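Predict structure. Chain length: 397.
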Amino acid sequence: MTTTSVNPNDGLQSPRSPFLSVSVTDPAKMGNGVQAYISYKVITKTNFPEYQGSEKIVIRRYSDFVWLYDRLFEKYKGNFIPPLPEKNTVEKFRFSAEFIEVRRQALDTFVNRVASHHQLQQSDDLRIFLEADEQTMERARSQDTGIFKKKQTDLMQIFRDVQSKVTDVVMGKEKPVEESNPEYEKLKRYIFELEDHVAEAQKHAYRLVKRHRELGQSLADFGKAIKLLGACEKDALGTAFTELGAKSEMLSIKLQRKAHHLLMNFEKPLKDYVRAVQSIKGTIAERANAFRQQCELAEQIKLKEIDLNKLRILRSERMLDAEHEYEELKAEGQEATKRFEAIALLMNEEIVRFQDQKTQDLGRAFHEFAKGQARLAHAIADAWRSLIPKLDSLSVS
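Prediction complete.
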């Protein structure tokens, strides 16, 4: 789901065209022990008038990105908020070079998706994230209340609870108040099926990465063993074995590089889409909640109207208070209806944008996979083929 931000240096836009591009770079380990964390340099280039200047560099940590995600999720109901990479709790992997680079790339993708979204890019919280100094950023996090004050683990539990509720609705295990909209039902089925299929593809992509790494390590071990065997021989056989070992070691390096390429350009984009679909399910849950609130208020309004009519007939002295309560409830019901309709309208727009972007991103990922596999197959075939004449001469003699 990588989006294309407008870059002032690409020659495609006039100098006055609006642009907001962000880079997450230079991860660095800060602190020691359990207090250690990774900080990132976030570089923003823009000509948006509300920003302080054309370029700004700030230092952010993972919890700052979480803060931004939580703010956007709460404020922009109906929008598909780009997903964050999950928090790794396994200590031995938390500071590995590969994990740090994978997370850096995922955070870069997240913030650029937000920056390129026509509504999210207008967020004051995004501007704070991109411009505020570290002390201001820390104060913003500490001053959050309500859902924002909860720990990430608490937020994830809330999400899982709501997601489970939506799953029960889709699977027919529970029958709460639910809108009977064929297009909405179709959308839910699509999202739940998409998550299953993408998750399955990602699982096998991970196995491909693992297979390339294991094969690369096996070739490296084989190469060392064959070179040692060649060193025992002083004739053409020894030379052939030495060259065979060298080729094996060379191919092991290619396979390890290909494994890393697969990880970054194939398996991780698929995993990112699993997270994206899970984020969309959160928006579906918000829509379901908005619809239920609207229906519950409509029912309360009906009951209140019945009570009010009784009071009018009885000419009760409570009639004026009841009329005031009725009008307040009606206004609340109208707001709930507007809120639900706004979420539903935004979701309709967002799913079109999501599908278009998914087609581009997954198409690119699978295209890179196919090209990479073809190049690797050719390289392996050429390497072994170059040894055949020498090995042929040995077998003939």
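Summary: The first helix runs from residue 62 to 75.
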